[in-house]
Amino acid sequence: MKTLIKNARLILPDGIREGTLILSDGKIEEVGAPWKGKLPELVHADDLQVIDAGGKYVAPGFIDMHTHGAGGADFMDGTVEAYCTAARMHASHGTTLLFPTTLTSTNEALFESFDTYREAVKANTDGAAFGGMHLEGPYFSPKQAGAQDPRYLRHPEPSDYREILRRADGLLKRWSFAPELEGSPAFAAELKERGIISSMGHTDATFEDCDAAFRSGCSLMTHFYSCMSSITRRNAYRYAGVIEYGYWQDAMDIEIIADGIHVPAPLLKLVVKIKGTGRISLVTDSMRAAGMPEGPSILGGLKGGQEVIVEGGVAKMPDRTAFAGSVATADRLVRTMVREGGVPLEDAVRMMTANPARIMGLSDRKGSIEKGKDADLVIFAGEDVRIDKTIVGGKIVYDAKERL
After folding, report:
1. pTM of this structure
2. Which one-letter DSSP state was computed for residue 35?
3. Strand-strand pairing, 27-32 and 314-316
């Protein structure tokens, strides 16, 4: 069966315009002119599902490169149901593809997460699809650990990361690490050789450390501004840090938690002004409390996770000295970039779609509405991004009307 989406305001690579989409076999078959009340010749009424967008926006499906969970579930819970619950919750906020992200933990917990991921891919039929795994740690700086459990922090040793890579067996798409740690350049180089994206994060690195990692193949920065060094002063001399390198290196991509809290409005505007919308991707970095009522929660797995408190739209450590993960959803990120970051809607959408698709090597299939690409779409109303429908591979996995 084919699907016709009519009366749509399409967010396309070259701007926003009224149009019609035809979907078939999980792909975008045609990007057409505005609906005139007559079916295109290539479709037949008896073999057609019609979606009337009613003048709402139709955008590429949102891609979340960095999320730990949602809907009361965390990927470190170690269950298939946790994966599927998080996928469903994220789909209800417009995400069509996500990369389950681990926290710093024991290797045993990592290996269990690999096995669970493999089972979850098969069981996940009604949520955002999984694109592969993102390891956040354990090679981080204790000075910039944030909410990462300091018990498991260590340096990248070849014997350690090669065993992790062996057990992952192709599941890993991205690995975040601190470039100043001994052995990091070699680690980044090996990831590049294996086709895995290395990303600087939870780091107290200097400008020079970052440059060494960049030349070894590191091309991305994890939650820019959060848990990373800036200008420091030692014995009267000033030294540039990670943030300065991210701004200076034009070829470096960055991700930001654009909830307006982790990165407040003035910094959102600054990062857009300096980096430009083409090098910024939006990520939720969400933990299990995303999409849930505020109050006590757990960061990480239910077994061995850390107690946190969610209040004011963000998760915090119990003593409130640091944030403990985000409770953002993709629609909130896009909305915040428009309202507080001051960017046009189409640019905010690009930072949640085309940019992450490019970074993750998926631009040939995902990230934009073009003929032949995957039919991963989100229909929403207004610049406050009220999600109406989420479509993954041509299948509606979320419909707001069914929740009324």
Report:
1. 0.96
2. P
3. unpaired
